[in-house]
Amino acid sequence: MGVLRSEFMSHGTLVLPHEWARDYVDLLGHKTQIMFEDMNSSVMQRPYRRYIQRIEEMERMVRFLSKEVENMPNVEVSKNRIDDFLDHDDEFTLDSLEAEVKRVYERFCRFHSNNEEMTDELEAAVEELNVVKDSISTGFLAAGEGLSQPLLEGEPTGQGSRRREDHMQFSNIAGVVKMEDQESFARTVFRATRGNTFTQFVEIPDTRKSVFVIYFQSTTAASAMSAKVHRICSAVGVHIYQWPSCNDEVCRGSLISRLSLLIASCSCWFLQVHP
């Protein structure tokens, strides 16, 4: 119905010359309280439809910008300044106003995109850092590094023992899962692999997430069991991270330093954008 939907109204029809229609409509809009209706809304031939679509698109962008500005702290939005707009309406043109609205709208969209990317990058860095810390606490290496060593210290390394070791090598896949999903995730992995896996969870402090490590028997990191576990993780939608393969303190310290620096940089950016 429009802005005058709560007022007493009368319906009328005004026939105007085509060449003067704009001037009459502009004058009526300034001097009277009138709401215009499109009498050709159900007709296929609408010569002004293209302009109406442009105005509707501008209204959508303005609504988005208004909502974003209202959510900003310590910002007061002035509305319903109709008389002020009418006093300066000759200063605006549709093309220039449309270009300005699009420019501001695209800037806000880029800001939202950058904000989402930084948020995802920060969350990924925090999750990967906890995976690395968990690998240090467990002391278990990724496949291909140190897994051919005996499981117990002092185990014989004769020919028979070597064959037994080849069948007792383990691989693992690590990542992060939501705490409310970890039980169902563990059951899914256990059933899909017919009990040939063991899943361990370590809670990440101050979050509702946990680091998971899935251990399974495998001689290589690219085995059929590894591919199956990866497919399960992809289907469930958990985040998978590379389990560190180096046992060197310098290597792991460098990895932790890199992730900590990334987290600090992202946190500093958020403090500047959202003080």
TrEMBL record:
- Note the superkingdom of the native organism: Eukaryota
Q: How does it sit in the membrane?
A: Multi-pass membrane protein
Q: Does the keyword Transmembrane helix apply?
A: yes
> Which InterPro entries would you find in this protein's record?
V-ATPase_116kDa_su (IPR002490)
A biological process (GO) of this protein is:
vacuolar acidification
- Which GO cellular component terms are attached? proton-transporting V-type ATPase, V0 domain; vacuolar proton-transporting V-type ATPase complex
Q: Write the record's keywords in alphabetical order, separated by commas.
A: Hydrogen ion transport, Ion transport, Membrane, Transmembrane, Transmembrane helix, Transport
Q: Does the keyword Transmembrane apply?
A: yes
Q: Name one GO molecular function term.
A: proton-transporting ATPase activity, rotational mechanism
Q: Where in the cell is it found?
A: Membrane
Which positions are tagged coiled coil? none
Q: What does this protein do?
A: Essential component of the vacuolar proton pump (V-ATPase), a multimeric enzyme that catalyzes the translocation of protons across the membranes. Required for assembly and activity of the V-ATPase.
Family listed = Belongs to the V-ATPase 116 kDa subunit family.
**What protein am I looking at?**
V-type proton ATPase subunit a
Q: Taxonomic lineage per UniProt?
A: Eukaryota, Sar, Alveolata, Perkinsozoa, Perkinsea
